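Hypothesis: this fold can be encoded by more than one sequence.
Test: take the structure tokens below, design a sequence, compare later.
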């Protein structure tokens, strides 16, 4: 099922900010591995958009009926008001970064998601693993995508609310 793209005009049923083609360009520009199947890419973009709804965005939704977390009003970046009828480029880039991170997590071999073997018993085979390295256990939302989202999710030094 084709993605429904939010453009900033509160598109009914929107489930992504980025298109499959934009995600392919992003992946090429940032050297990220992504699936070649369009349906898999669409699913990743939908999952990323859903995860984005859990973030504490600045400003407020334009409508209680909009499908996604953007567009928003009352958002300022370095003293400039973010137009309430658009989705900022960094929000769109953040969705694509998050989708690539989700894919990397999904694709990582199980042995990379566990720690070193700390006990092994040969006789009816028993293996115990230690904790996974901290770098591998970070939640997806604490990686590169947060660099794109930082100005829009409560960084007090660069963001302020506008009173309507």
């Amino acid at each position: 099922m084709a993605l429904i793209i939010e453009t900033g005009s509160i598109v009914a049923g929107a489930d992504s900010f980025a298109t499959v083609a934009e995600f392919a360009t992003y992946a090429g520009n940032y050297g990220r591995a992504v699936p070649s199947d369009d349906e898999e890419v669409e699913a990743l973009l939908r999952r990323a958009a859903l995860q984005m709804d859990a973030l504490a965005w600045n400003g407020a939704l334009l409508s209680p009926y909009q499908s996604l977390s953007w567009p928003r009003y009352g958002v300022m970046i370095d003293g400039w008001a973010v137009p309430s009828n658009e989705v900022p480029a960094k929000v769109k880039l953040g969705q694509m970064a998050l989708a690539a991170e989700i894919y990397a997590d999904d694709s990582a071999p199980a042995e990379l998601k566990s720690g070193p073997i700390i006990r092994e018993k040969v006789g009816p085979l028993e293996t115990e693993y230690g904790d996974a390295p901290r770098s591998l256990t970070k939640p997806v939302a604490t990686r590169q995508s947060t660099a794109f989202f930082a100005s829009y999710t409560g960084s007090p030094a660069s963001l302020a609310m506008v009173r309507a």
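The chain is about 35% helix and 15% strand. Residues 20-109+140-161 form one domain.
Hypothesis status: open.
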